[in-house]
Amino acid sequence: VFHGKKASPIHCNIRDKSNSREERSGEKAAEAVEVKLYGQIPPIEKMDASLSTLSNCEKLSLSTNCIEKIANLNGLKKLTILSLGRNNIKNLNGLEAVGETLEELWISYNLIEKLKGIHAMRKLQVLYMSNNLVKDWAEFGKLADLPNLVDLVFVGNPIEEKYSAEGIWVDEATKRLTRLKKLDGVPVIKQVEEEAED
Q: Structure pTM?
C-alpha cells in the first residue's frame, strides 16, 4: 500500500506526493497495488501525467482533495477500484481509459450533473455517487447501459430527494435499473408477480 505524505509544497500534484513517499519509504509507487493519496494537505488539484506510471495499481484513492477533472488514467491497466469522493469533479469525462477494468467507482460529494460517458464502464458493478447534482430520469437512465451494475448509492442527488419525498424513489429507480441488488445501501426486494389463475 502506497500512502501519500500529508505535508508538501503549496502547489500540490500527484508527482510531488509520489516522489516524497518514495524517498521516505523506498517503496516504488509504480509497483504498488494500492495507492492512497486521499486528504492531502495541501490538496491535490490535478490528476497529472504521473498517474500513468502506476501500472500495477488496482485501487487508487484520491478522495478529499480539490480535483476538478478526471484525467491521465491511461496507464492504469489493472485499476478496478477508483475513489474520487469529496472533490470538485463536474463530469465523468476521462473514465473511458479504465472502462475495461473498473469495477467500483466511488465518486460521492462532487458536482456531477450529467452522466455522459458512463456507458464506457462495461465492468462497473458498484457506483457510489451520492450527493451530486443529477436531477432527471434521462440522466439517471444512462445507468441502464451498465450491464454489471448491482450496487448503487444515489442518495442526496436532486432526483433522489424529489422522488423519495413523494415515496416512489425505490420503485422508480429499480424499474429503470432492473439488475440492481442494492440501492442506497438497502437490498432490493424484487416483487414477484403472481400468475393469474384461469
A: 0.86
The contacts found for 74-79 with CB under 8 angstroms, 24 or more apart, are 75/51, 76/51, 76/52, 76/101, 77/101
Residues 168-194 pLDDT 10s: 999 999 999 999 999 999 999 876 543
41-68 tens-digit pLDDT: 999 999 999 999 999 999 999 999 999 9
What are the structural domain ranges in the chain? Answer: 2-187
CA 38, 44, 45, 50 dihedral sign is: negative
The CATH number, out of the four listed (3.40.1440.10, 3.80.10.10, 3.90.1150.10, 3.20.20.60), of the domain defined by the range 2-187: 3.80.10.10
Peptide bond into 158 cis (omega under 30): no
List the beta bridge partners of residue 104.
Answer: 81, 126
Q: How far is CA 166 from CA 159, 161, 162, 172, 183, in A?
A: 11, 9, 7, 11, 17
**DSSP per residue over 115-168, as a string?**
-TTGGG-TT--EEE--SS---SHHHHGGGGG-TT--EEE-TTSHHHHHHHHTT-
